[in-house]
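ugh ok so i messed up the first submission bc i forgot one of the chains. this is the corrected input, ALL of the components this time, i swear. 1070 residues overall. if the numbers dont match what u have on ur side tell me asap before i send this to the collaborators (the ones from the other lab, u know who)
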Amino acid sequence: MLRANQRHFKFDWITIILFLLLVGFGFLNILSASHIGEITSYFDTDQLYGKHMMFIGLTLVLIVLILSVEAKFYEQFASVIYVVAMLALVGLFIFGKEVNGARSWYGIGSMTIQPSEFAKFATALAVARYMSDLQTNMQTIKDQIRVAAIIFTPALLILLQNDAGSTIVYLSFFFVFYREGLQQVYLTIALSLIILAVIGLKFGILITAIVVAVIIFTFYFSRKKKRGALIQHITVLVACVLFSYGVKLFYDHALQPHQQNRISLWLRLEKDPAKLERMKKVEAYNLIQSEHAISSGGLKGKGFLQGTRTTGKFVPEQHTDYIFSTVGEEWGFMGTSFVVLLFVMLIIRILYLAEAQKSQFSRVYGYGVASILFVHFTINIGMVMGLIPTIGIPLPFFSYGGSGLWGFTILLFIFVKLDSNKINEW
Amino acid sequence: MRKLLLLTTVILVGLVFIARLFYLQVYDNSAYNIFEDIAIKKEYNYPKRGYVYDRNGQLLVANQPSYDVMVIPREVTPLDSLEINEFCNLLKITREDYDKKLKKATNYSPRLPSPFVPQLSKKDYAVLQEKMRKFEGFYIQKRSLRSYQTTIGANVLGDIGEVNRSIIEKQPYYKLGDLIGNQGVEKTYEDVLRGVKGIKFIQKDRFNKNIGPYKEGIYDTLPKPGKDITITIDAELQAYGELLMKHKRGGIVAIDPNNGEILAMVTGPSYNPNDLVGRNRSKNYTKLHYDTIAKPLYDRGLLAQYAPGSPFKVMNALIGLQEGVVDVNDTYTCRMGYYYGSRKLTGCHHHSNPTNMNWGISQSCNGYFVNVYRKIIDKYDDAGEGMNVWANHAKSFGLGNFLNNDLSVGRKGRIPDGDYYDRAYGDNRWGSTYIVSNAIGQGEVETTPIQLANMTAAIANRGYYYTPHIIKNIEGDTIPKKYTTPKYTTIDKENFEPVVQGMFDVYNYGTAVHLKVPGIDICGKTGTAENFIKIDSVKTQLTDHSIFVAFAPKDNPKIAIAIFVENGYWGGRFAGKMASLMIEKYINGNITRTDLEDWILTHSLENEYKKPYSGEPFQINRGSQLQVIDNYAVELPDTSDLKL
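and heres the new structure output, hopefully the right one now
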């Protein structure tokens, strides 16, 4: 009896409930952030929240479709899906529509579709497919280059369309590679480079060089065997200094002015008070409004539809990338910590399920899902609270937008389907 | 291990986020303040400020509408120079003023309203109102200004002015541009007169457009009008006192002994309260404020702390009787002063001898009171103890401390006690002979006119007084109990009679014999107080102050008065005449002693006040010359508006 029951309810209900809570709570906040005038009907498609309600409705249809397809399909057709997605990205250069300076949309009538949102699950499928191949060994340089090619192809295409935010998301696959056997040294190097870049920008080349030199020589003199190692250590030191100099050059010459400003605000690099004041009014306007909106919420918030900054539309893009500030203002600390907990629980649940998979394909895919959700969650909420520089990517399941919602739903529910199929696999 | 990297990172990020959110939302911002929310516009609706009436129901202070042009710098749209010129012409300011005012407002706050041009006239307002829509970021705030129905009582009524930043910081009720009582009853009864302003919260969008009331107006409030008050001042008496005080400096305080109500409170020089209303307010206020010689803003009736002089002798008589050290019939011989051994401690003027108490008071004999005073102090083994007993008696008349009443300013005065002289001379290194000046109200004793008036009221009542106060009635409210509860002095009732008789005889055959008013039994006491100032750090004596206290009638008194005229020489010369006139005016309503009135109105002390600043050597007292105003009628204000 119990067995039959388990079979009958084979989808992971915890994941589905967390998903529904996020989408539902997200809708309430989009309603608050986007309504103009009185709310007559939740289905009023003249208003953004009405459109989002329609997206949610279509999402449910999509879920049924995804779950009714045979699980094997996703593994077998992973490469095809990936190629189609890449072609869709390439097609943007010819048929794409430019919105806010990024050429990331296809226009179909009054609707727009953002293929980069769908490229994420396609890439996750392709990565899982390649890595689950018996021939693949993540310890070898050859395979490392190949998986890198899989993720950097969409990343590059998206970067060329001037959507730097979405590009960063593809770095999330690093977690997947590491889980599947990428050497420890990559992690060490990646962390060191991030720290080097930040220190170099914040404190300048000279201080960076001194700090690195102290660390490296402390390490050198604490070693017992010194023979021959000195040259190596000096090489590392020079490399570090060159790297931080390179970052500085990159910051000064390669970044666009708005990107420079975001980093400058984050690291508080600007010292000229007049310019800082101007930056606060222009470049940091969104951030400051959103921080104020969040902190004005207090413990319990001002109440649903009662946020003064939300109602007054003080935070631009509040229904999309800045939706979390609505949660902060209207639902207070109770609401924000609830959302953070929902995300943390969802990601942990996916990780747990991924580890329980019998097939490597499902496990790698699950890891990919968790990593993508995690990076979105971290960057979006971190940005809205001013913890990391402004990077415009949506909050999964929460932000307004059809492409985003569908992209994440497909991403998640393919895994739910794969997970439900694990008893059939050996 | 590899499984744990993402898991631990997720948990770590979750914890960091929750900590940051806790800091932002709970720790850093425990209370959301709607007043600091830029998304909510606050619209104030100012209530009517309460009216002020005199004791007879005459309206003294009413309201008139005023229109302030306010600015919110952030919302000002850039105007071209033609538009700015038009705006400046409408406001009657120059282009430089415009830039300066806008900069000042921006410095205060770009997003909070600041007054741009305060207090437009009704005419300017009418013209401007039509065109106001063109100038975004500017709006007109209607307020209520005071409209004085009289030209007198500036020190009593006070004025209202814009709040400054330190007031805003201490009392968040007030916002920049709000008005607050500045002096007089406007200050002490601010809370009553002001009412409570109404507020409307309006939700704005980020283009600063109104999008309706915030939360359907549940936080909005209606203005609560201020309450009218009736003050104890008799406007007619006050006006008459101010008339008498013209061309003199000094103070008059008249009190009704039956209830402590202040009937008149005159300071000279004063000013027209209408000078501090409207657009000239700031200019006029500055002028008054910086007149550091005549000090028109200094209420001499309340603040002029000087040696009381001879009126204080009656205090020593009362204490002497109470302590039992002197009998009414005890006599002393005064040889033009008081001698201690061969040393003359204090001088006196010529009068017949020997002196008993009645003669001592009526002739104002210095020698007599030094004897009495020394007996009081020396009654006790220790001079310090004697001094303390003496001081306690004096303090029971409300001297030596704040009266703790409803006037906006005041001073403590000074009644020295044992400790005071222990500090000055060293412990027990002094005796009664060191401090005999207190016997005649010189020395260390200092009082203000209102304290002297109150002391006189206590004598008139034969032993008690009501705290002098200015409030008679508050619309729909009662006045505090402390003003209706008598305060008893430490002197027994029967000890007052001989003193009152002495004061009565001041008029019968004493120092004020020529100041009698037919039909009114006045009791009084003259005073003459030496005074000094520093000119180029040299202590220089000026002509004596003229002082007088009186009450009338002798039985069932209706008025107690203290008058003090700076450098008026002897008590009967200025203060005494003015006291008689004030009493007659109050009790009879008309003046029969027109000779006294003429003399006071035609004599000026302006020359006397100029002397110390002339830079030349000058003579005082006997050597000073009185200034006579020939054509004084021209100088008089139109008295028709003094009456109802």
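quick check: The interface with chain B takes residues 175, 178-179, 181, 187, 291, 294-299, 302, 306, 308-309, 311-314, 316, 328, 332-333, 336-337, 340-341, 343-344, 347-348, 351, 355, 367, 370-371, 374, 377-378, 381-382, 385, 387 of chain A (CB under 8 Å). that seems consistent at least. DSSP finds 19 helices and three strands in chain A.
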